[in-house]
Amino acid sequence: MFAGLRAFARTTERWAPSLARITLQSTLAPSLLNFRSFHATSTTLRTINQSMRAKRVPKKQEKSKSPLLEVSPQRKGVVTRLIIATPKKPNSAKRKVARIKLTTGKSCMAYIQGEGHNLQEHSVVLVRGGRTKDLPGVGYKLVRGALDFAGVVNRATSRSRYGVKKPKRK
User: Fold this and answer.
1) Ramachandran region of residue 158, left (φ > 0), alpha (ψ -120 to 50) or beta?
2) What CA–CA distance (Å, rounded) separates 26 from 18?
3) Predicted TM-score (pTM) above 0.70
4) What residues does 140 pair with on adjacent strands?
5) Which residues touch 132 (CB under 8 Å, ≥6 apart)?
């Protein structure tokens, strides 16, 4: 049964090059043509029997690390509560976190980066993905300098992350 398929798959005989192959040899570099011309194995990576036996396993889709954003890079939301959280064991601090009601209707906890902030309840903010490792349950961050959320005051380095314009020279 498979002998007929194998014969059909072999378009040109190995010992008698076709006219197309001769014209290709003149146009292409000889090193490219001779790459597979002297190999006894076919160019396919597996045999017909292996192909027939193989199961087609669909690739697993990656689980999103920020599912509440759905497919968007950021989402708009409204601050419903401001929280001061303490981090996990080796660290010690008072981290500022906001509870956000997204435009999709879902709620999430988002970390407020940088020193100081102007947020209060009902502020409109932009939420992006990115967890805060030492705060359990906080898998999102707020974008500084967007909508009602002001940038960090007197910030000189990493300004784009904290929504600060370039200072004017005098």
Assistant:
1) left
2) 13
3) no
4) 110, 129
5) 95, 111, 138, 139, 141
**Given this model, what pLDDT does residue 16 score?**
52
Position 96 confidence tier, pLDDT thresholds 50, 70, 90 = very high
Residue 45's domain comprises 2-53
3-class secondary structure, 43: coil
Helix (H, G, I), strand (E, B), or coil: what is residue 16?
Answer: coil
Which helix (H) or strand (E) covers residue 65, if one does?
Answer: none
CATH number at residue 92: 2.40.50.140
Query: 73 and 130, same structural domain?
Result: yes
Domain match, 19 and 89 both: no
By residue count, the chain amounts to 170
Is residue 167 one of the residues assigned to a domain? no
Distance CA(122)–CA(100), nearest Å, equals 9
* Model confidence pLDDT, tens digit, residues 41-87: 666 688 888 888 887 788 888 898 999 999 999 999 999 999 999 99
**Interval 119-150: pLDDT, tens:** 999 999 999 999 999 999 999 999 999 999 99
Question: Per the domain annotation, does 58 fall within a domain?
Answer: no
Yes or no: say if 78 and 101 are a contact pair by the CB < 8 Å rule.
yes
For residue 45, give the DSSP letter: S
